[in-house]
Structure formats: structure tokens, C-alpha cells
Amino acid sequence: MKLVTYSHQGAQGVGVIASDPQKVVPVAALGFSAQDMNQFIRQLDGRSPTEFTAQTDAAPGLPLSDCRLLAPIPRPQQDVVCLGVNYYEHRDETLASNIKYDGQLNKTIYFSKRVNRAVDPNGAIESHADLTSQLDYEVELAVILGRDAKNVPMDQVKDYVLGYTILNDVSARDLQAAHQQWYFGKSLDNFTPMGPWIVTRDEFDWMPKTGIRSYVNGELRQNSSTDLMMTSIEDAVHQLTQGVTLLAGTIIAMGTPSGVGMAFTPPKFMRPGDVVRCEIDGIGALENTVE
After folding, report:
1. pLDDT over 80 at 259, yes or no
2. Residue 55: in which H helix or E strand, if any?
């Protein structure tokens, strides 16, 4: 099942796509009053949306072709939680860059990313050319929590995961290097494309082992698999919730594989007019243009 935020005839809504991939059913038809995805997740109250598959299939809906898909969670209620250098090959290419990093990796690197408004599928990545000349891309699997989570045992993490989406962790590498931390260089406005939807957890094995790729102007840059992550989803959610409450709807970006622009010789940073496409098998594609 897919959960979407969409625009139809100028109005924004939250919808569900079940057996018919071309039909969007507004959640109001399923008895929910949610005006946005955060409210819908809260109203689900930990239930799986697949409980409503039969009701969704029977309900009237909107043609997907008449809807414009928006970022599934346009305005996250908390900063996105990110995992740094969480693929082995990306760790190695980062060590060779000018981004300072403890190569011993005794502990997972966690950081947050400010998102004022997530960039929609086919939306624009702002180049911020006055601030950075080293604009980079990072395709990432993003985990969406379906329940408030605190002190979650490893064997219960699965029950807290609602589903997955694609996130492009756009980064200003020169700001990262200059400030010796990652928050500012990854948090500029319009630096977080997300989408095209949330695919519910039951559509994947636990834990997801699926292909992950990125392209810039049609050139394959990243090509890996989510089973090559150093810290798993189970490990991350368990660790992050020890003494910390993550609210339902929290987005956890699980890191990017090798092939980012800074790792090439010479580097291949993005420029205005470039088109970056992020793909994860089982979810789909997220494509955005740099402006």
C-alpha cells in the first residue's frame, strides 16, 4: 500500500493507493479526518494502513493521473534524523575527502537535518549559489515511524515502522568542511526532496534488501543495495530511542551509498539545470531539477 500527499484541483489532500495503482482514495473516504500526513499517521495510532485495503478498494477515488504528488510529509514535525557514512564504501570515499571524520567508526554517526518544507517529486532543488559551489546529492532510504517510540527493544522495532520513502539528502560540501559539522550544510531551504510516496512496511521483507541508485543527467552515479548498510534499521531505532522520544511520523534517513559527487576526481558537483534522479526498488523514483 502507498500513502500519498497530493494536490487535486488546487486542494491538498492525503490519500491511499491500494490494489488499483491508478486510484487515489482520500482518507476521508476511510473515515479519517486528517488534513495532512502527520495527522493521518497520528490517527492510525499504530495500526497498519493495510487493515483498510478492502475498504480502500471499494471506495470511490481520484485518478492518479489527475493528481500532483507532493512530498509525502511536506512539513516534518521534527528534524529529519540522519545516519552519516552508513555504507562501507561511502565511508571509504568520505575518508578520502575533505570532510573530517573518525574512520574508526566505533559508534554510529547520527545528526539532524532541518526541513522547513520538503521538496516535492519533480520540484526544484535550490542551488544557493551565493552560499555554496559544492552542491551534492545523496540517495537514501527513509524510514517513517508509525508510533511514538521510546526505549524500543530490538525485537519490537518492526512494530514501530510504518513504511519507507526516498529522500535526497542534498548537501553543501564546502559548508560541511568549513563548519566541521553537518547540520548547516544539509539544512538549507529546499535541500530535502522526498517521495514520491510512503510504501508500507509489509511490502518489503524485514529488513528491506533492495536496490538503491542515483543518476545525474542520466549518468549512473550511485548503485548499491540497502543490505550493505553498516547500522541496520533495527539498530538505529533501538539506539535512537534510548532516553529519546521519537514522535509518530519521525523520518529517519538511513545514509547513502558510495558515488556521491565529492568522491569523483575531479568532483562532480551539481549545477543549475542538472536533473538528479533517485531510485529505490519497491518504492519508485524521485526526480528533481537544480535551480
Report:
1. yes
2. helix 53-58
For residue 70, the cross-strand partners are 5
Report d(CA 225, CA 283) in Å as an integer. Answer: 13
* C-alpha dihedral (24, 29, 30, 36), degrees to nearest 10: 70
* Cβ neighbours around 63 below 10 Å, total: 10
In this predicted structure, the answer to whether residue 235 has a pLDDT above a threshold of 80 is yes
Q: Which three cell numbers stand for residue 124?
A: 526544484
Cell of 54: 478492502
Cβ atoms of 241 and 145 within 8 Å: the answer is no
How many of the other CB atoms lie within 10 Å of CB of 238?
A: 19
What φ, ψ does residue 181 adopt, rounded to 5°? -160, 170
Q: Quick one: cell of 127? A: 542551488
Residue showing cell 573518525: 102
Res. 258 pLDDT band, cuts 50 70 90: very high
Residue 149 · residue 264 · CB < 8 Å: no
State the Cα–Cα distance between residues 136 and 169, nearest whole angstrom: 8
Task: List, in order, residues 6 or more apart from 107 with CB less than 8 Å away.
Answer: none
The region of weakest confidence among 80-89, 112-121, 146-155, 276-285 is 80-89
**Phi, psi dihedrals of residue 237, rounded to the nearest 5°:** -65, -40
